[in-house]
Amino acid sequence: MTVGLEHFLILSAVLFCIGLYGVLTRRNVVIILMCIEIMLNAVNISLVAFSRYVTPAVLQGQMFVIFVITVAAAEVAVGIAMIIAIYRKRQSINADTFDLLKW
């Protein structure tokens, strides 16, 4: 049995669903940020799989993955900075206590 495109897409879908479940159900902002990273990695797996099985001579999927990893690193840096700033003000990283933008 060989590993085909559908196996990678199933793995990607499962990882994306796990990340989405974590984003929708968790209240800790750090865990929500980690679940977003899981979702981005699921997208990376599908991009590389499509690139490998659809157009193996062109490295478009890998270039998109490098771009997504770069954006994810910037997202983590900004997200952690925001979490630290909110924690200093509110003494909590619970997502329910973030009402800074409410009237």
What's the SSE blueprint?
Elements: H1 5-25, H2 29-54, H3 60-90
Helix pairs in contact: 1-2, 2-3
| Count of distinct strands | 0
Overall domain count: 1
Q: Low-confidence segments, ≥5 residues, pLDDT <50?
A: none
Structure annotation, total helices: 3
Q: What's the CATH class label?
A: Mainly Alpha
How many angstroms does the end-to-end distance come to? 59 Å
Output the structural class.
mainly alpha
Binned, the helix content reads over 70%
Which sequence of SSEs, written as H and E, runs from N to C?
HHH
Mean pLDDT, nearest integer? Answer: 89
> Which second-level CATH architecture applies?
Orthogonal Bundle
Textual characterization of the structure:
The chain is 76% helix and 0% strand. The chain has one domain: Orthogonal Bundle (Helix Hairpins), CATH 1.10.287. It has helices at 5-25, 29-54, 60-90. By secondary structure, the protein is mainly alpha-helical. The radius of gyration is 17 Å and the shape is elongated.
